[in-house]
Specification:
Length: 195
């Protein structure tokens, strides 16, 4: 179970808005209402897919998982609100993401005036070290499997820090505070979501 008090104690003083939902459906309904009439874009995210938020928004967000990928990745940079998840979050105060093309980590940091991270309880770790391990050995490996990459982790089930041409882990972002000028909200869901 998510420790709401502890999360608030760590992330609120850093300037993050923090909110909690018990179930994905509640978070999805809240976000659909909050985002009504706004130009949104999504980063690649199994969490967002599982929330079913794309189909719930009357104004369809820009999403390279639904639209022309190259155009959508660029167009997302001019969205008003950018939604994504985290590969891991540490209770020491870091949010970690790993990217292959860099669109997700770069757009979350600069471009849209607002970033919303939707984070299931499975992404929350005690320490930065554990969160980094999770991002590399759970999130990245599952993503490599989902994308059917020819990388060693797909066979071994753990990160081999490969130099494969198909390596999906090409850049890491570690956020400790909202970027200047970017309102940043962490939406926690007390269920496992994405990976
Ligand atoms: S660095 Fe290579 S082996 Fe490690 S998770 Fe990424 S793609 Fe897989």
């Amino acid at each position: 179970m998510i420790d709401r008090e502890r999360i608030e104690r760590v992330f609120s003083p850093r300037g993050f808005n923090v909110c909690f939902f018990g179930e994905p459906e509640e978070a999805s309904l809240y976000l659909a209402d909050y985002l009504k009439g706004r130009k949104c874009a999504f980063g690649g995210s199994v969490t967002l897919e599982e929330l079913g938020l794309y189909d719930r928004l009357t104004e369809r967000p820009i999403w390279h998982w639904r639209d022309n990928p190259e155009e959508a990745r660029r167009e997302a940079q001019s969205a008003e609100v950018y939604l994504l998840s985290a590969n891991a979050l540490s209770l020491e105060g870091q949010i970690i993401n790993i990217d292959g093309t860099g669109n997700r980590i770069s757009t979350a940091l600069f471009g849209p005036k607002e970033a919303i991270y939707v984070i299931g309880r499975n992404k929350v770790e005690e320490t930065f070290e554990k969160a980094l391990w999770r991002a590399r050995n759970i999130a990245a490996v599952k993503n490599a499997i989902r994308l059917n990459r020819k990388t060693p982790c797909v066979k071994s089930g753990k990160c081999m820090d490969c130099n494969s041409p198909e390596r999906i882990c090409r850049g890491f972002s570690v956020i400790t505070h909202p970027m200047m000028g970017v309102k940043t909200t962490l939406v926690f869901v007390d269920e496992d979501l994405g990976y």
